[in-house]
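If it is no trouble, can you show me the amino acids of a protein and the tokens describing how it folds?
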Amino acid sequence: MSVEAARRMGSNAMRILITTDVAGGVWSYTEELTDALLARGHTLCLVILGEPGAVQRSWLAKHRDLSVTLLPSPLEWEPEPEPGLSASVEALRRVVEAEQPDVIHLNQYYYGAFALGAPHVVVAHSDVVSWWRAVKREEPPADAWFRRYRRWVAEGLRGARVRVAPSRWIAQQIESIYGLGPVRVVYNGRSARRFRARRRARREPVVVAAGRLWDEAKGARDLIPAAALLAGRARVVLAGPATHPAEGEAFPVDAPGLEWVGMLDAEELRLLLSQARVYTATSRYEPFGLAPLEAALAGCALVLSDIPTFRELWDGCALFYAPGDAGALAEAALALLGDEDRRKALADAARARALSRYTPARMAERYEAVYRDAVESAAREPVAANGRR
């Protein structure tokens, strides 16, 4: 450990390098964690894989003092990430050498297999093998792509000083699939101020769902027959992308009873959630699920697919339905739409849980402990053979 690193450790402040990407919820997680760690006095360096879009650029414009490096690298789960992925390792090492972090927080598996110049933590946000099992209800193909992917993930996990996941369910999946543990659980957090509902807002008989509508893992097609059953009693409003980014089938946004409002920015989504009575999450696979958390903070009652993650996070403050059972989904929504006292009680319970358990401050505090354990582990075993050198 350098003299400067020792000084920072002594003052409880650390220099932390975080790799992130612009796909899915990893970016929202990065925003929240970065802001919370900065508020606790740490110094942050971000390495962004991929090209930032409007959302990312807007946030970065408010953080001009943040050290940011763009790394034009594909991600390990893309159809063909080579040779770009391998080529990016040396680029990342150069960033580490320039920034001299005390610890590296990797939000991708691949880089965990390499000696990067500082102890590193690997966070298992998701996994293609567990995704396939949950969505397809079968084992993934034993083809060359999956063999390589499994190897990359296993080597990345093996090379980490500490492994982390955002729920017990996905932590258990990772330990089981790759035979590597332990995987520690740090719940994600979302800032209440981003989704604060107006106190006097009038809530409409509206059921909202938001996310990647085209993604079969999100189970949004449950809402098509459910909307028909809710016709005349509630509006079913959907937000998010409907067109598959590859060659998959698009979500039928023109199905009877559905109102598709397209892609919403953060303020538009907050406004929609603040007006709706019920939010429904229909996922077949969720390692955490930020959307229900956002809806809870906005004051919606939750109707969730009965999958292990949602039970872990929201049991006792949501209604659940069996995935694929559109009748049960509609019935649960109607039960809340027709009983405002019950709806409000569940909404208040969900918001209270969000405010006590899934906050950025709580997330940052737990990551501090993770980072210190990683640094102390490296100090005890400075020559440990962590993955490929």
